[in-house]
């Protein structure tokens, strides 16, 4: 029954692919019974089973021996076997033309620089030692050496420019502040190519320029608010101010001294015992002592 059902499915072909569940439903039996029947048909060389992944198996109908003899007799008589389901299954061998070999493309000329020799390695190492000796912070030497050789191979290092920049950084206020606390490690300085950075203006120079502007502004204010009576006692204030080392904040000191002078309590030069304090702090302490 199963073989006849497969022949019906095949029709004029020599193969079919019904699922085992479909065959079991048509024959009214279980799927395990269908598997048993298929093994028996394959054992008797009536079918050939081709297993396919994720799809139903394909069943090829083979020509039985007694039908093969009849088919051979028909062919000898000039006849032709028309039953497709009893035709022996043979795989068709297709002779495909050979795949043409693509022409070999010419490789472009290599832009990679030739490998540096041993002598160049030693020259780079000697240059690194000179940089290491000049650098103020001696930490992570081997890591810095590895970064140095990588930059050397890339051609990113110019010894003269790097040494000139290093000398500028060593003289900068940022590297000399707090005993070199803010000096980076050489490996980080090289990795970031920090020798190409522009140094900011010196804080001391900025402070000096700021103080000069403040003094100029205070002088302009003093000239604008000049008082003949106060101008007469200015030499006393100048003598008092000359006793101090720090003469900054001249304007506020002059204003406080004039207030004390109007009250008859202005200090004189011989009253200054400690020259290390600023004039403004001295005047504030003097005023507090006078009010006390």
Automatic annotation (TrEMBL):
<feature type="compositionally biased region" description="Pro residues">
    <location>
        <begin position="97"/>
        <end position="106"/>
    </location>
</feature>
<dbReference type="InterPro" id="IPR036388">
    <property type="entry name" value="WH-like_DNA-bd_sf"/>
</dbReference>
<dbReference type="Pfam" id="PF13730">
    <property type="entry name" value="HTH_36"/>
</dbReference>
<protein>
    <submittedName>
        <fullName>Helix-turn-helix domain-containing protein</fullName>
    </submittedName>
</protein>
<feature type="region of interest" description="Disordered">
    <location>
        <begin position="90"/>
        <end position="118"/>
    </location>
</feature>
């Amino acid at each position: 029954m199963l073989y006849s059902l497969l022949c019906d499915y095949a029709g004029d072909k020599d193969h079919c692919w019904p699922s085992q569940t479909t065959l079991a439903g048509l024959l009214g039996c279980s799927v395990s019974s269908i598997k048993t029947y298929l093994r028996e048909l394959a054992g008797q060389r009536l079918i050939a089973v081709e297993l396919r992944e994720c799809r139903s198996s394909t069943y090829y109908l083979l020509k039985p021996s007694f039908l093969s003899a009849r088919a051979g007799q028909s062919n000898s008589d000039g006849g032709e076997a028309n039953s497709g389901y009893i035709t022996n299954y043979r795989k068709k061998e297709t002779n495909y033309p050979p795949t043409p070999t693509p022409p070999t493309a010419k490789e472009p000329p290599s832009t990679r620089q030739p490998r540096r020799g041993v002598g160049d390695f030693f020259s780079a190492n000697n240059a690194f030692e000179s940089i290491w000796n000049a650098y103020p912070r001696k930490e992570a030497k081997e890591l810095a050496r590895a970064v140095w050789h990588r930059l050397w191979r890339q051609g990113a290092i110019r010894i003269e420019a790097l040494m000139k920049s290093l000398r500028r950084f060593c003289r900068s206020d940022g590297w000399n502040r707090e005993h070199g606390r803010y000096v980076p490690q050489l490996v980080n300085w090289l990795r970031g190519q920090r020798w190409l950075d522009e140094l900011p203006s010196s804080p001391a120079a900025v402070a000096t320029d700021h103080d000069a502007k403040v003094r100029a502004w205070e002088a302009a204010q003093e000239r604008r608010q000049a008082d003949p009576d106060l101008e007469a006692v200015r030499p006393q204030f100048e003598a008092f101010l000359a006793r101090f080392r720090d003469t900054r904040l001249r304007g506020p000191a002059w204003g406080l001294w004039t207030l004390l002078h109007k009250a008859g309590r202005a200090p004189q030069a011989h009253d200054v015992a400690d020259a290390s304090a600023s004039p403004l702090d001295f005047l504030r302490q003097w005023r507090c002592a006078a009010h006390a």
